[in-house]
Amino acid sequence: MTRAKKKTKKPGSILLSRHRGLRADGPSVVASRALSNTSSLSSKVGRTLIRNHHTLQKRLSQALSKNDTESANSIRAEIEANGGIERYQQASVCGQDSQRGGDSSKVLIDWLREAIRSSPNKKITNKRLPLLEVGALSPDNACSRSNLFDVTRIDLNSRNPSIETQDFMDRPIPTTDGERFEIISLSLVLNYVSLPAARGEMLERTTEFLRHTSLEGEEEEQQQGSRVTELFPSLFLVLPAPCVTNSRYLDEKRLEEMMGNLGYRLARRKHSAKLIYQLWQHVGKIQSSGRQREFSKKEEVNPGRTRNNFAILFR
User: Do the record's keywords include Transmembrane (predicted)?
Assistant: First the structure.
């Protein structure tokens, strides 16, 4: 049998596509059995499944970067045997269930409602803001129910007709502000990207999708010192806490410096035992390539044997 010619993919695309690491000819029977037995998952089982999936995806990316086809195929089969992307997404959706307090967008809504209450200008506060939700799992989260946004939802492996199947890194760059957004949500998305340079590329790309001109009534808001204009346009970033609090190569200071190089200012932040929530307002242009070279190599900021290796790099 003649093998189909394998398509060449951009390095970032391989890393950013959760479903592209799976084989169509894997042990689907095992996967389907796993799915049929997990219509609902306990919090503990869901967390374990998500953790294992992330570990396997990291190993897969490492194997692919070394052109180790044998190891890569073995890891793909293991991912599929565990239920693949479908079971991983099921665990993620269960984790977002309101009864478990897992919908991270509630934090964003709280920040916005607080700012809106302080605003005297209804030209802005009555406007539904365009929001791009990357890695959307459900059309029924707090953002969707708030009536504050016109939400565009994308995910690599959509499970719902209201969510477009799309890789953010393949989404066409907007050419007008009418195509751009007030807020981009990257909630537990960046940590899924396997390579540090691909994470930096994703963060840098967000700036292309945020509004560049003022909203109607924004200048008046600024003159009145409103807290609403402190928030837009912005990136809502949610990461597992250890990515920032227990990494050898990243802490809050370094992350703030890196985001500053992309023209972001930290507007809001919240920490929980498991997650870090941040709202970054985009206020300026990306710094020169020379300035960004400061962050092109890993630099140890938290020495220690128990640290993890999460990092973000700019090319």
Answer: no
Note the Cα 221 to chain centre separation in Å.
30
Q: Is 140 annotated as a binding residue?
A: no
Are residues 170 and 54 both part of a single domain? no
Q: Is 293 helix (H, G, I), strand (E, B) or coil?
A: helix
- Say if 75 falls within a structural domain: yes
135 and 82 within one domain = no
Of 268, 252, 260, nearest in space to 291 by CA: 260
pLDDT (tens digit, 0 to 9) for every residue of the chain, 315 residues total? 555 544 444 444 433 333 333 333 333 333 333 333 444 566 667 667 767 776 777 677 677 767 888 888 888 888 788 777 677 666 655 555 443 335 899 999 999 988 887 766 555 556 789 999 999 988 989 998 998 899 999 998 888 999 999 999 999 999 999 999 999 999 999 998 989 999 999 999 999 999 977 655 555 555 444 556 778 899 999 999 999 999 999 999 999 999 999 999 999 999 998 999 999 999 987 766 656 678 999 999 999 999 999 999 998
Residues 63 and 173 in one domain: no
Is 102 annotated for ligand binding? no
- Give me 101's structure tokens: 């307090």
**Which residues constitute the domain of residue 178?**
104-213+226-295
Do 189 and 206 meet the contact criterion of CB atoms below 8 Å apart? no
Q: Is the pTM of this model over 0.85?
A: no
Tally of structural domains, the chain = 2
23 located within any domain: no
